[in-house]
Amino acid sequence: MKAQISVEFFLLASFTAVLTILIYQSNAALYSSTKQLDDAYLTRNSLTRLAEAVDRVWLEGNASKMSFPLFFPSIANCFYFTGSELYCVMPTEYAEPPNNALKVGFNAPLFVDCPQPMSAGWSFVVVENNSTHAVVTC
Fold first, then answer.
1. Residue 63, Cα to own-chain centre: how many angstroms?
2. How would DSSP label each residue in 91-109?
3. Are strands 77-81 and 85-89 parallel, antiparallel or unpaired?
4. What's the Cα-to-Cα distance from 62 to each of 55, 110, 125, 132, rounded to whole Å?
5. Is 53 exposed, middle or buried (0-12, 13-18, 19+ CB in 10 A)?
6. Would residue 131 be called left, alpha or beta, if left means φ above 0 and alpha means ψ between -120 and 50 degrees?
7. Taking the domains of the chain in order of start, what are their residue ranges?
8. Measured between alpha carbons, how far is 56 from 5 in angstroms, rounded to an integer?
9. Residues 31-57: pLDDT tens digits?
10. pLDDT tens digits, residue range 102-113?
11. What is the reported pTM?
């Protein structure tokens, strides 16, 4: 009788261990994908808020100013700008090829006075209009 109980216990413990390992492996892959999507969303949201602030300050005219906090995840290499786009480079499947960049357009002439790349976490951003272009300061 004791041997039968120990065999049943061993079988039950083995089944539980295998089930736990399978569930953990499937959830680890989902967690990684969800984390990448979350980082891409946070980065896109920060870029969009910044582009909207640049446009708004530019449209409000000379000496207008906005200040607000932005969050950049640790995997985002932010932010750079071309003539009409702000962008961050990210090693994720949710960024746009060919250079894995999340891009947001704006309509104002822009000058960015921020370190590149931005440090991860919260940054306080000031956007002001100096009559010739919008200035972003971090």
1. 31
2. SSTTSBTTTTEEEEE--S-
3. antiparallel
4. 13, 14, 18, 8
5. buried
6. left
7. 2-137
8. 74
9. 877 888 888 888 888 888 988 888 899
10. 777 777 788 888
11. 0.74
Tokens 């569930």 found at: 23
Please give the Cα distance from 73 to 40 (Å, whole number): 8
**For the chain, what's the residue count?**
138
What dihedral angle (degrees, nearest 10) is formed by the CA atoms of 113, 115, 121, 124?
Answer: -20
- For residue 111, what are its two tokens? 């000058």
Q: What are phi and psi of 93, to 5 degrees?
A: -75, -10
Question: Concatenated DSSP letters for the chain?
Answer: -HHHHHHHHHHHHHHHHHHHHHHHHHHHHHHHHHHHHHHHHHHHHHHHHHHHHHHHHHHH-TT-EEEEEEEE-TT-EEEEE-SSEEEEE-SSTTSBTTTTEEEEE--S-EEEES-SSPPSEEEEEEEEE-SSSEEEE-
